[in-house]
Amino acid sequence: PFDGETDVLGVVGSRYRVFQNEELFSFGDNILDGGGTWETAGSIKNGTVVFGALSLNREITVNGETTDNYLLVSSSHDGSHPIQASVTPVRVVCNNTLTFAIGKGGKSTKQSFRIRHTQTTDGRVAEARQALGIAHAYLDAFEDEMKELINVSVNDKKFHDIITTAYERPDVPKNPVGGELASVTRWENKLDSLKDIWASETTPEKNAWTALNAMTERLDWHRQSRNGSYEGALISASGFDPATNVEKNRLRKVTRSLVGLK
Question: Comparing 62 with 107, which gets the higher pLDDT?
């Protein structure tokens, strides 16, 4: 798109339907029926993944902690990512994305709507809006979760218990060698990083929500991405990395369990 030359973005099957960038943004506009404001748009992975974020104009503020909320629409041109619309809460103080599969009454509150590239979005906007009634149902559940966790106090000792349960000390023999010693050093450095984030939290009252945020903040901004690039960190922090999302949900479950919440 910049030099007029043809780029190959990916190899796909015969059933693959090209979904243009313009169509993605029209899809987002139609879902919210013009009720949102575009705040961010871009492409990553050499143009193969495209995204845009619509502000839902709904802040959640609990105990001085503010979370902005967006409808994130995304697609890919190489078959690696479906056409997707999802609700994305972003913690304002450090811009880390809070991507949790929140359950209420034994059911998971729907957070996203996906369409495969072998399908068409024609006639599916109404279906997407229904699934994304999402926007309000999910954010209601998210706000309830925040309040529940904020109401549980966590001191330094409890935080230590949480992070050492979430990240167990490597099991090494009595006479460890180089690689085994290195694994312990990495574990100690991880705990030190988490404790530094915990100590620097701006909220004066330390609670289960603060503890969970310290761990998700480290995932987003205080570790080296798998490919070592800034874009790799951005992908993780924006909710595009499935492995990071799975890890955040694991940490949520550990935190809730350690503070006595189901």
Answer: 62
- How far out from the chain centre does Cα 59 lie? 17
User: What kind and span of H or E run contains 210?
Assistant: helix 208-221
Judged by phi (left if over 0) then psi (alpha if -120 to 50, else beta), residue 95 lies in left
Structure tokens at 69: 């909320």
The whole-angstrom separation of Cα 100 and Cα 219 is 14
Q: Which of the 8 DSSP states describes residue 104?
A: E
**Residue 228 vs residues 25, 85, 189, 244: alpha-carbon distances, Å:** 30, 28, 18, 15
Distance CA 202, CA 221 (A): 16
In whole angstroms, give the CA distance from residue 36 to residue 28. 9
Distance CA 25, CA 38 (A): 9
pTM: 0.81
- DSSP letters, 140-180, are HHHHHHHHHHHTSB--HHHHHHHHHHHSPPP---SS--HHH
Instruction: Write the pLDDT tens digit of every residue in 157-170.
Output: 999 999 999 999 98
| DSSP string over 29-89 | HHHHTT-SEEEEEEEETTTTEEEEEEE-S--EEETTEEEEEEEEEEEESSSSS-EEEEEEE
Other CB atoms within 10 Å distance of the CB of residue 106: 5
* Mean pLDDT, range 182-202, rounded to an integer: 89
The CA distances from residue 165 to 137, 158, 213, 253, in Å, are 31, 11, 16, 11
